[in-house]
Design the sequence.
């Protein structure tokens, strides 16, 4: 599918965005491992989270999906069944990594695979600690690439220092820690998103957090519950940046998750000079939520690095678009992780924006953008990466001619209604 976006002036209106992708995956998984029923409202019915649901169903969990409402009949910690076929994670790294943690604790054999992009993305970082806990993995490059075979078993708790701030890695270890006797301890170099910790505690696990260390007592009884998933700030981000760069805009995004481990985009947009208001702060269970109102300002370039990076890692492609229109230089560093996302997002940002007239210099761990640019428009490719597709669409809102995005169907991974939502704001 091709998506065409053209500048039509100010964006104005109120929108909601689909449920948070990270929280939706975790809600389905913890619901499956809990005792009793978990009802999830606002679940993201995008391709990634539905891949998690299908894998859990293959593991014997009864799940009814009705749009954004999920009913999960929990199997309990020890109720999963050996799947009779390969578990397909599609394009979803979160599905693969989180399930590796769960499967490590199962006394059976399973095999995980994914689409061509996911089969290229390194996974070795996750099997390593799980092997230390007692699970066995077999796969290409010594267990670095999908397809990965897992022989789970009786696990021992570990104390593990992760080499990078990765919520997927931390969560895989914590999920495996559910099946281990004793206390599993994970320490990260910087804090990554903490949805797993919050949700585990809400399901009844005993968990302590201090600085960037999480301790989990194994073999808890998890109790099914009702969960309302907040809107995904990583999806809202496209409209927040759009409103910040298109003169005269005023966009209100309602019901967005504003967990502080995810709000780096708000801090950066403010530092750049956009007007960002956080309204009606409240919470959906363990997660903070607010309505976000964004209007443009005189944007200036900023430096983005260090502990801020995990708080906005998925927003860097669209922040690159904001930087094109800011005065002065924007430097992104410490973001090497971008190279192993759905695509190499450092190369993709530079090469795809170049096709529509943008100039981005890449570095090993980020990029440098001199602001004040004008985009000619033209065609670019999503590279089958949903966040690239949407970032390019936002660039189209300030280009001199229409921007067409090839392979844009991948927006279904996280934001099936993206094009319609954008069109409404342009009316
Ligand atoms: C996610 C964590 C991040 C993020 C991804 C979702 C999660 O990845 O980029 O989109 O749900 O835990 P890493 O943990 O690999 O940094």
Sequence:
């Amino acid at each position: 599918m091709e998506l065409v976006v053209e500048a039509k002036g100010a964006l104005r209106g109120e929108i909601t965005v689909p449920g948070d992708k990270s929280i939706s995956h975790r809600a389905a998984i913890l619901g499956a491992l809990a005792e009793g029923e978990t009802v999830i409202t606002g679940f993201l019915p995008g391709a990634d989270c539905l891949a998690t649901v299908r894998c859990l169903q293959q593991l014997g969990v009864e799940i009814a999906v009705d749009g954004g409402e999920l009913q999960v009949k929990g199997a309990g910690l020890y109720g999963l069944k050996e799947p009779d076929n390969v578990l397909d994670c599609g394009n979803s790294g979160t599905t693969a990594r989180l399930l590796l943690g769960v499967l490590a604790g199962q006394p059976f054999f399973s095999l995980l695979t994914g689409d061509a992009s996911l089969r290229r993305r390194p996974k070795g970082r996750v099997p390593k600690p799980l092997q230390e806990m007692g699970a066995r993995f077999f796969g290409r490059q010594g267990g670095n690439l999908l397809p990965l075979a897992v022989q789970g078993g009786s696990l021992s708790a570990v104390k593990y220092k992760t080499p990078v701030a990765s919520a997927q890695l931390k969560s895989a270890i914590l999920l495996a820690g559910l099946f281990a006797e004793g206390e599993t301890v994970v320490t990260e170099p910087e804090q990554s998103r903490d949805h797993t910790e919050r949700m585990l505690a809400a399901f009844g696990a005993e968990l302590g957090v201090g600085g960037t260390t999480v301790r989990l007592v194994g073999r808890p009884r998890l109790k099914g519950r009702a969960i309302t998933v907040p809107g995904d700030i990583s999806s809202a981000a496209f409209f927040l940046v759009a409103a910040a760069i298109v003169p005269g805009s005023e966009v209100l995004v309602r019901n967005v998750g504003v967990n502080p481990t995810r709000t780096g985009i708000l801090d950066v947009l403010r530092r750049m000079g956009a007007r960002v208001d956080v309204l009606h702060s409240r919470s959906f269970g363990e997660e903070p939520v607010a309505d976000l109102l964004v209007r443009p300002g005189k944007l200036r370039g900023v430096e983005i690095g260090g502990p801020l990076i995990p708080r906005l890692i998925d927003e860097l492609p669209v922040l690159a678009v904001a930087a094109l229109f800011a005065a002065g230089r924007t430097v992104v560093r410490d973001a090497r992780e971008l190279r192993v996302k759905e695509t190499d997002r450092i190369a993709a940002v530079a090469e795809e924006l170049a096709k529509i007239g943008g100039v981005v210099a890449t570095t090993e761990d980020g990029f440098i953008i001199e602001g004040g640019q004008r985009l000619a428009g033209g065609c670019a490719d999503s590279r089958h990466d949903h966040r690239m597709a949407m970032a390019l669409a936002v660039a189209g809102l300030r280009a001199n001619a229409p921007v067409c995005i090839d392979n844009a169907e991948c927006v279904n991974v996280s934001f099936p209604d993206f094009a319609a939502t954008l069109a409404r704001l342009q009316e």
User: Anything to note?
Assistant: The chain has a mean pLDDT of 98.
